[in-house]
Known about the structure:
CATH superfamily of the largest domain: Glycogen Phosphorylase B
Order of helices and strands: HEHEEHEHEHEEEHEHEHEHEHEHHH
Oligomer: single chain
CATH topology of the largest domain: Rossmann fold
CATH architecture of the largest domain: 3-Layer(aba) Sandwich
Largest sheet: 6 strands, parallel
Structural class: alpha/beta
Strand content: 15-25%
Number of strands: 13
Number of helices: 13
Amino acid sequence: MLLAGLAIADELRASVPHARVVFAGSGTGPEVRRICRTGYEYVVMGGACEDRPVRAWRWPWTRWGEPRLLLKRIRPAAVVSLGGAIGESVGRAAAGLRLPLVILEQHVSASLTTRRLAAKAQLICLGFEETRRNLAANCPIRVTGIPLTRPDPPGGDAAPTDDAAVVRAGAGRLVILGDGGSSRTMNAVLPRAIGRLQEHIPHWRVVHRTHGDDVRPIKRLYRRFGIDAVTTGHIHNLPGLLARSDLVIATTPPSDVVELSVSATPIVAAIEADSPECSQVRTARTLAQRGACLLVEQPHQEQAWTQVLKPLLSDSGHRRRLAAAMQRHFRNDAAWHMAGMIRDLISSAAGRCVA
Length: 355
């Protein structure tokens, strides 16, 4: 949800240049760096954050008390919950202090946080119309789409020399995010499937992110099949890399097709047979039904990969159509609409206080 929050913040700052925007999060390194580079404040809730920039400050965390104290200290005009445990705790604190509360739900099925906060919110914004059906709320519900901001430029984070930061002119790039869930079988099958399709990707480079222990075995597999590939356990500035890629393969969960879609790159989501029917999986299935991404529900089978990848690798028009279908579900004006409604909500709340 980080990108959605940044998109809304950017729109608010564009219309109210002197507005103070503060993000609260768990303090993961990439998240802190991304937000602090934009000039916003960041509050680390919970455990300590490694290598956090000086503009990210930590707030002690013990359930609901500290979010309440934090809001009393900052005195925000409104609170926007982007989901998760921190979004819920700060949202509850905002409701207790009678601050305007806005909820953004980006998945097809409303999260537990959204359902718990729905009765306390003054505005709920949805990414999908289907979410409205099973959501009980006493406030306006608007289907705005998912607000997404552009990824970092290529130079946002210095990329290591082995993560394929530089690709030959005219070459394609396939990015595989196979480091989550039960994806070890997929990691072993994909090099073989790609090896069968080498005639369709003579000038492509593969960037394969996997678990640290699997880096060397996967690297040997690619070398065995003569595939131009970089295998790594970490990619610096992943959003920037995705924006310069031609096709992305990711395990869902934990990867989220909504977060990946900001790159405007065609996405293939791999869903393991034992994957829980969580919000990421339901959203991926809904987008696949609308032609916005492709699914591989038997990622342990080499044939399943060759059938899906062959038309994508051999036909650039197919990839463009898939990416365009995804982008139609993420409106460019979603952040602008949300920012406008937040300003109206703040003005309305201020008017009631004056009265």
